Amino acid sequence: MTAVADTSTIVLFHSAYGLRPAVQEAADRLRAAGHEVVVPDLYEGQTAETVEDGMVIKERIGRDELLKRAIAAAPYSDRGLVYAGFSLGGALAQNLALADDKARGLLLLHGTSDIGDDTTVDELPVQLHVADPDPFEPHDWLNAWYLRMRRAGADVEVFRYAGAGHIFTDPELPDYDKEAAEATWRVALGFLADL
User: Fold this and answer.
1) CA-to-CA distance for 100 and 162, rounded, in angstroms?
2) Strand runs labelled E in the chain
3) In whole angstroms, what separates CA 98 from the centre of its chain?
4) What is the pLDDT of residues 159-171, one digit of tens each?
5) Domains of the chain: which residue ranges?
6) Do you find a cis peptide bond into 133, omega within 30 degrees of 0?
7) Mean pLDDT, residues 144-161
8) How much is the pLDDT for 77?
9) Is the pLDDT of residue 179 over 70?
10) Strand ranges of the sheet holding 36-38, from the earlier edge strand across to the other edge
11) What is the pLDDT of residues 83-136, one digit of tens each?
């Protein structure tokens, strides 16, 4: 059993759909495990019903502005933060974690980001949960991503869920896969408890 002193401060970023109930439910699940969780609303109240609508909001705000909002929303922690996110939020979380030499961990749900050739981290624990196959995270990309993360110094675990849809942890989306979602949270909570 993990003591409360071993829990983490987690910043959890939403997907291109915006701050939907599933993100708040995920935060509540993490809080129930004893973690402090910050859930920024990078879309400032906007949400989308479809991924296409979410991409319109994302493009209107712009990648640089989203990254600025993510950086501004991340709280300070003496012990370092754990960065986490869903899809687009995972990409943002990865960017922040790789730039933060105090990051304690990185939990990616359904999404990754590119990695600079000069990126280095000191054995940063990273866990990725992704559908298999996933049109947004194809096998060739994930294989290259994994190798580049390892070369950068990250300690990476990848969990693939056959037949699941892209954001399979959100019960309100057509991608939802209850079995894959439950397995994801079981493994992710163990990962966070070990940080």
Assistant:
1) 33
2) 9-13, 36-38, 81-86, 105-109, 125-132, 155-162
3) 13
4) 999 999 999 999 9
5) 4-194
6) yes
7) 97
8) 86
9) yes
10) 36-38, 9-13, 81-86, 105-109, 125-132, 155-162
11) 999 999 999 999 999 999 999 999 999 999 999 888 999 999 999 999 999 999
Contact, 51 vs 17, CB < 8 A? yes
Strand-pair partners of 13: 85
Parallel/antiparallel/unpaired status of strands 9-13 and 36-38? parallel
User: What does the alpha-carbon distance between residue 122 and residue 85 come to, in Å, rounded to a whole number?
Assistant: 21
Query: Residue 9 phi/psi, 5° resolution?
Result: -95, 120
**Residue among 65, 109, 47 at smallest CA distance from 84:** 109
The sign of the CA dihedral 132, 138, 139, 142 is: negative
Report phi then psi at 38, rounded to 5: -110, 130
- Joined tokens for residue 76: 């300070």
- In angstroms, the first-to-last Cα distance of the chain is 13
Q: Which numeric CATH code is attached to 4-194? A: 3.40.50.1820
Q: For residues 70 and 96, what is the distance between their CA atoms, to the nearest angstrom?
A: 8
Q: Write the single-letter amino acid at 2.
A: T
